[in-house]
Every structure is written in C-alpha cells, then in structure tokens.
Amino acid sequence: MNIAGGMHHAMRTHASGFCIYNDAAIAISWLLDNGFDRIAYIDVDAHHGDGVQAQFWNDPRVLTVSIHEDPQHLWPNTGYPSELGGPEARGTAINIPVPAFCPDRLWLRAFHAVVPSVIREFRPQLIVSQCGCDSHGADPLTDLSLTVDGQRAAILAMRDLADEVCDGRWLAVGGGGYQLVGVVPRTWTHLIGAVVGVDVDPATPIPGEWKDLVAQLPAERIAVPGPAPETMGDGGDTRHVPWEPSTYDPAERSIEATADRFIARARSAVLPLHGLDPEDPVTDEVPLHPSGPATDPFPAPSVQAASAGPYEFPAHWVADVLASDGGVVHLRPVVPDDADAIVEFHAGLSERTRYLRYFGPYPVMPPRDVARMTTVDHEQRVCLLAVLGGRIIAVGLYEGLADAGKPTSAEVAFVVADEHQGRGLGPILLEHLAGAAAENGFHRFEAEVLAENRYMVNVFKAAGYELRRSFDGSVVHVEFGIDPTEALVAVRNARELASEARSVSNALRPTSIAVIGASATPARSGTRSCATSSPAISPVPCSRCTRSGGRSPESARTARSGTSPIRSTSPLSPCPPTTWTRCSTTAWPRTCARCWWCRRGSRTPAAGARSPSGGCSRRCARTGCG
Predict the structure, then answer these.
(1) Of the ranges 69-73, 271-275, 323-327, 427-431, which one carries the lowest mean pLDDT score?
(2) Catalytic residue selected from 9, 136, 289, 432
(3) How many CA atoms are closer than 13 Å to the CA of 299, on its beta-carbon side?
(4) Which helix or strand (DSSP H or E) is residue 383 part of?
(5) pLDDT tens, 612-624?
(6) I want to staple 174 with a disulfide (CB 3.0 to 4.6 A). Which of 3, 314, 524, 529 is the partner?
(7) Residue 239 backbone phi and psi in degrees, to 5
(8) What backbone phi and psi angles, to 5 degrees, belong to 540?
C-alpha cells in the first residue's frame, strides 16, 4: 500500500489537480507488463478518478470504477454514467455519481448496487483501490457527508471483494483528504488496519499523545484547524437498504430519490454490458459494522418546499457562482415569495431587452406569467434566479415539451438585467439549468430567438453546445443536446478558470497604490517607507523633468493644493531630459515616457501608436504601446 499515493488526476502528458504523477496508473501498467491481464481499479475519492480512467479508456484488461460526487457540481466535472470506455473496451469504465450531501447510508447503497456485481463478473486477478477520504462531511473541498465509519465500511467492503474474487490480492493507495486533524489520520489508520488484517474498532479512544500534539500545533501547520476527535469513529450509521427498482418515486425531490436516480442510471448504463440485468434487486448480504445513531452526523441543508404541492428542490441547486469578471453571484431556485421581486426585475429591464426576450415591448409582466414563473414543480418546469445584494439580476427557466410530443426536450429561456449583461451570467444560468434538466431526464434544449438577437445565439455557442438552427421569418429555432461532451466540459472548465483568475486579479494586480504618510520631504519617514516599498515609486518630484520647475504639471498642481505629490516613473522608461510624464501612481505601469501618446497624457495608448519621430524605442510595461 502507499498512503502518500492516490494521485489519480495526473494525465499521461500533463499534471492535473494536485497530482503530478499518477502512481495508481503507473502501478497498474507495471502489473500488466509483468504477468497480470485482468485488474480492477476502484476509486472512492469524492472526485472522479479521471486520470486512471483516461489511461485505460480503451484497454479491456482494466476495469475502472469510480464513485464520486455529482460531476455537475464538483471538479473535474467528469465521471457521468455515460462514460463507458473506448470502442475496444466498452463497459470497462464505470461511473457512479452520488448527490451532494450524500450520507453513509446512501453512499453505501450506491456502492453495493453496482460495484460487487461487476467485480464478480469481471473476475480480476487483483484489485487496486484509491482510498481518498475527502468524501467526509467535514472536508472543506467537497460536499459529501460521509463519516469515518462510512469510509471504514467502504474500505472493508473492498477488502472483502479482494478476498472473495482475487484470493486477497489487493493494492491500496491514499488520495484526497483535507481535514488533516479530524479525518485523515483516523480513516487511513482504518485503511492500514484493514490491509494488515487488524481491524480497528470505531469506539477505540484516540491516543492522548495525538491529542496533545494537535493542541500544540500552530494554526498555520494545520490546513483545516479543529479539535482532535475523541474516538476512531464518528458514530455514523452504516446500515443501508439494498437498492431495488421499486424503492423510490422518480418524481420525489428528496436526496434519497436523487441518489436512487443516479444509481438507476449507472446500473442501466453498464450492467447490460456485463450480461447483468439492471432491474434485478441487490441481494448481497452486506456485513453490518458497528453503527451509531440512526441520524446522519452531517445532514444535508434543510431546503423548504419551493412551490405548491409536495415538491422540493435538491439542495445542490443552490450555489454561489463566479461571474466572468470575478464577482460572486448567488444562484437559487425560485420560491413563491419571489413574485414581487420578479415583477420589479422585469420593470427594470430596458425596452430593448424586453423586446428581445419577449418579442414585444411587454412593459408590465401580467399576473398569469408571474404565477407561471413562480409556481414550478422543479422537474417539468424549473426556474433559477441569480441574486446580488438581495436583488434579482437574472432569471432562467426551462419547461418540458412533453405536451408537444417531445418528452426528453425542454424549452429554455433567460434574461439578464441590462447593467449586468456581459458578465457571463447567461452561460452560467444555461449550465445550471442544463444540470437540473439532466437530473430530471431531459436530453435536449430548444429555444425561440429573434434573428436579430445575436447575443442569445452567441451565448448558446459560447457555452460549448452544438446548435441546430432553423429559420421561420424573423425567428430562429435553436436545438441542442445538453448531455455532457468533451468539448462542453472543456469550455466550462476554461470559463471557470478565467473567472477564478479574475476574482483575484484586483488583489494581485492593483492599478494604483495608496501610501499613507507619504511626504515630499526626503528626511521624513513617509519618504523612506515609500521608497523602500517600491523602487519605482518616489514621493520626490522627478529631478530630470524640465517643465514646471523640474516637476510635471500634475505634481505642481498637487503641490499648490497642499497635498504631497507622489512621483511615479516606469523603470523601463525613465523621464528623458526633454520630456515629462504624468505624476500619479496609476501612470507608471501604463505609460512610456518616450511615447508621443503618453507625452500627451494618455494612460492607455492605442495599440500600434507611433510617435512623430518614428515610434517608441521601448514597449510600455502593461499596454505595449508602439
């Protein structure tokens, strides 16, 4: 075993996530080269084991199984049941998503509904297990709700399979896990105990030496601070009801029903490829391990019914998302109390925006449409709101087209407030609506768009969807599949990375610097501290400037106003004797003292600008003028 391993995201050609080298894939490749020809890989990390799956995507000798959080809501956004392996290895990639906030009993239900039967049918010579423990309810990077007891039950289940099918041949590696005090030491102690055949009782007290060590560690040494636990378990309940086709209502919106929908899709996708019936109930006798209370220690957040009737929306539909400019926007399903806010939102739209969205001026939203938007069942009709500062800034809606003879298609539409257009909210709403629709069994979206509304069509294209368009006069009918594709996932990941980068750019790349206590007198502390903090900033006017008595006009005006000027000079292009630059903290990274446009005071000279003498001899530090 290798506790420090489990780097399952690294790819053949590049690093990914926190993983540089994929030790599990390397080990499996070595084993294949040294006599093994049937190996099963089981990944219980909260993230999809994409790197190992990719390595053996078209290799029928390796069965990769990954049970992970819903990829619509967790990086790397892969691992759907439809990912089944390459053309020469169809059915050897098995993916079992589970919903956010999934507790022990539902996670174990999903595991035992798929994994043991396909492992027995595949008959591997050896099992390799990636035992990441970031599925715990206290882990800061994921949204699952397992306990140490549930993770221990998964480890023992994999060991039992290795004993049954592989004569005990089992290779175990670590993986993700970011609660370094309360989770990682306990779960991997259970893993080590299972490997060496010394099972650890969850009721075993934590050694006092460990608790003393935790108490002495400085906060910066602990990624996720927290008190040391008292026992080797959380008191989690690992009892679960075996899966049966008739044990859930597809229309129910609870986390149990969502988990069972995921299980049914995974079974339907892969079991027939192994000669198994996805409708057969699970009859495995699962050993019960010591259990605690009947309630989940990490329950899903309580979400109230969002419409008349028994419907409730899944908790993971509520999210804080990053707009393309790096700002944070709250996304959630509509509730009946939003009626007045939706009317206010509609009234605030410009006439042009209302025309493009509703094909007419539509100055006041009639009560009929308000009721239609707020009375939803969160299945055939779903409405999501983007909220900022308590105000609605965007609305997205899809509605099933079963009445039109298209049971797996839905019509989609959205509108964004004028002042928030251009922030990427349209693609975000579309992505989350598509995720909700996929959970409810839809595979296609359709939309009616005015031919002149190129922005809306571009939103669909920018989101990565392959459009099929038809024209009817001034209206374009758009259709596209919403099932995830490689291109769609790539576009989504690129958009998220760009938004994350912009979210921190203001802190990492300031356009100005405020120096408190700066002074024009060289002997004072403000002068020395300013010069020390940045050699490119000096509170002393430039001695080489030849206008305004050795100062630029701006520094002269500043001096007359009684405030202390702050001189800024680009280190790439200091003031030559015959020119001057603007004296402000925002000027130095953006202007070139030898550029004609900069001499005129332009802070953002046009690309390709040239001075009368033939152009800059140096490029501006940021804008690259000349």
Answers:
(1) 323-327
(2) 9
(3) 8
(4) strand 381-388
(5) 444 443 444 434 4
(6) 3
(7) -70, 145
(8) -95, 130
Are the CB atoms for 452 and 463 separated by under 8 Å?
no
> Quick check: 148 and 232 in contact, CB under 8 A?
yes
pLDDT in tens, 225-240: 566 789 999 999 898 8
User: d(Cα 163, Cα 126) in Å, to the nearest integer?
Assistant: 10
Contacts with 464 (C-beta within 8 Å, 6 or more apart), sequence order: 485, 487, 488, 489, 490, 491, 492
> What does the alpha-carbon distance between residue 233 and residue 200 come to, in Å, rounded to a whole number?
10
Q: What tens digit of pLDDT does each residue of 160-192 get?
A: 999 999 999 999 999 999 888 889 999 999 999
Collapsing DSSP to helix, strand or coil, 129 comes out as strand
| Strands (DSSP E) found in 116-179 | 126-130, 170-173
β-pairing verdict for 126-130 and 170-173: parallel
Q: Tell me if residue 9 is catalytic.
A: yes
Prediction pTM value: 0.55
Whether the ω angle into residue 484 lies within 30 degrees of 0, i.e. cis, is no
**Would you state the structure tokens that stand for residue 212, as one six-digit string?**
């003393």
Contact 446, 469 (CB under 8 A): no
Please list, in sequence order, all residues whose beta carbon lies within 8 angstroms of the beta carbon of residue 602, skipping any fewer than 6 positions away: 591
Tokens read off for 234: 């959380």
Alpha-carbon distance of 52 to 7, in angstroms, equals 9
pLDDT given for residue 145 in this prediction: 92
SS3 477: strand
Q: If DSSP codes are grouped into helix, strand and coil, which group holds residue 240?
A: coil
| Residue corresponding to tokens 């701006």 | 554
Q: Is 375 exposed, middle or buried (0-12, 13-18, 19+ CB in 10 A)?
A: middle
8 A C-beta contact, residue 583 and residue 552: yes
